[in-house]
Design brief:
The structure is a single chain. The protein starts with a strand and ends with a helix. The strands form three sheets. Strands 6-4-1-7-8-9-10 form a seven-stranded parallel β-sheet, sandwiched between helices. Strands 13-12-11-14-15-16 form a six-stranded parallel β-sheet, sandwiched between helices. A three-stranded antiparallel β-sheet has the order 2-3-5, covered by helices on one side. By secondary structure, it is of the alpha/beta class. Helix 5 links the parallel strand 8 and strand 9. The longest helix is centred in the C-terminal third of the chain and has 25 residues. It folds into two domains: 212 residues, 3-Layer(aba) Sandwich (Rossmann fold), CATH 3.40.50.2000; 177 residues, Rossmann fold (3-Layer(aba) Sandwich), CATH 3.40.50.
């Protein structure tokens, strides 16, 4: 069977350096995994703004991936109002593509999917921007403007999804969209590669027990709930240390607030911010030194890639029961209630205090993560796209 020539678009930028394509690790690993099943991948990506360059830390390894610069990553409103400018590179470079995979939500979804009529679009929907608006560090008027745009964008996205093959990365999205999308496939997106796994029998060997959070620093991630859970645990005689790996979002004051609260609780030496670290060895070393991975998201989301990464490092996980986490976690994650530090502390305390529970969680986490590497998931996606394209071509011939 002939391999696909696939286009890929998302609003996360990429850049060329030393004759190689660089992009953030989670996007780069996804592209590399897809490339193993394709003749060629053409990435239609924005040029980064100055402050974004340090986040473009992953070098694409596959030789069959090329970059098409579609212009600077300007504001969402600018890209929407001037979408014709950004569409031109797609039109110029689309010849020979079998399909264009668009990761969504993204501002240029509608103009690209409808303007590039010679190439069938396939959607990969990984979230709902409407759910996180209230947690944005923005004034009320701006939140309402964003909400208005997000509703319009979601309406356009659902309309286009109803006409094409659509992948979604959570059970919640699948159940919401299957009523209006006939060609819908539920998948588990992940950054894991076969060489990422680290096996150990147990963690939590001595206090203070090392908690780990990896991700963007945002109130929506419930970071303040984790700190309050640490205070509760200390009152129960369980001493913890918290490593926080990730960058602050623009306009977000959560790091300053956490530092102030940690000092107030005389825990400033137990809460350590490590900043952003690139994926692979630099990041995985944090997982491998931790005792418990904690994710206290307050809002619904897909299944976060950081949970897969933690499980692949034999790290027991405590997470709030939001989004796809209860659906995909199995026995590998101890669930807690969102917005409830007491529930979070109880779940962490159970993991720290029960060796048999930890062993079961570690074994199940390794099993689940091995079954959901990027290579496996990408192979499934490409096979589904190929089957859909073949059926589509056959239908046209028959007509």
């Amino acid at each position: 069977m002939k391999k696909l020539s696939l286009g890929f678009h998302y609003h996360v930028p990429g850049t060329m350096k030393d004759n190689a394509l660089y992009t953030p690790g989670y996007q780069g690993r996804f592209i590399d995994a897809l490339a193993g099943y394709c003749e060629q991948i053409t990435c239609f990506l924005h040029r980064p703004r100055g402050g974004e360059l340090e986040m473009l830390d992953y070098r694409i390894r596959s030789k069959n991936v090329r970059l098409v610069d579609i212009g600077p990553r300007t504001s969402v409103m600018h890209r929407c109002f001037h979408s014709g400018r950004f569409l031109k590179p797609f039109l110029k470079e689309a010849e020979g593509l079998d399909a264009l995979l668009i990761r969504s939500p993204t501002p240029l979804l509608c103009p690209v999917a409808e303007g590039l009529r010679s190439v069938p679009s396939v959607l990969l929907i990984v979230g709902d921007h409407l759910r996180g608006i209230d947690a944005l560090p923005q004034p009320f008027w701006r939140k309402e403007a964003i909400r208005l745009w997000a509703r319009w964008n979601k309406w356009q996205q659902d309309r286009i999804a109803g006409q094409t093959l659509t992948f979604v990365n959570s059970r919640e999205l699948f159940l919401d969209m299957k009523k209006k999308v006939s060609e819908i496939v539920e998948i588990k997106t992940t950054t894991l590669q076969s060489g990422d796994f680290f096996e150990r029998d147990d963690t939590c060997q001595a206090p203070p027990y090392r908690l780990l959070y990896v991700g963007r620093l945002s109130r929506a991630k419930g970071l303040q709930d984790i700190l309050q859970a640490m205070v509760i645990l200390r009152g129960r005689g369980i001493e913890t240390h918290w490593d926080i790996v990730g960058a602050s979002e623009p306009g977000e004051s959560i790091r300053r607030d956490l530092e102030k609260e940690a000092a107030k609780q005389a825990m400033q030496d137990r809460v350590v911010f490590h900043g952003y670290h690139s994926i692979e060895n630099e990041l995985f070393n944090f997982y491998r030194k931790a005792d418990v991975f904690v994710l206290a998201s307050r809002l619904s989301e897909g299944f976060p890639r950081v949970i897969w990464e933690a499980m692949a490092s034999s790290l027991p996980v405590v997470a709030t029961a939001v989004g796809a986490i209860p659906d995909y976690a199995g026995g590998a994650v101890r669930l807690a209630e969102a917005l409830n530090p007491e529930s979070l502390a109880g779940a962490i305390g159970q993991v720290v205090g029960q060796k048999d529970l930890r062993g079961k969680m570690i074994r199940e986490g390794l099993r689940l993560s091995r079954a959901n590497t990027g290579e496996l998931v990408s192979g499934e996606m490409i096979r589904k796209i190929q089957t859909w394209l073949d059926f589509r071509r056959g239908s046209r011939v028959a007509a």
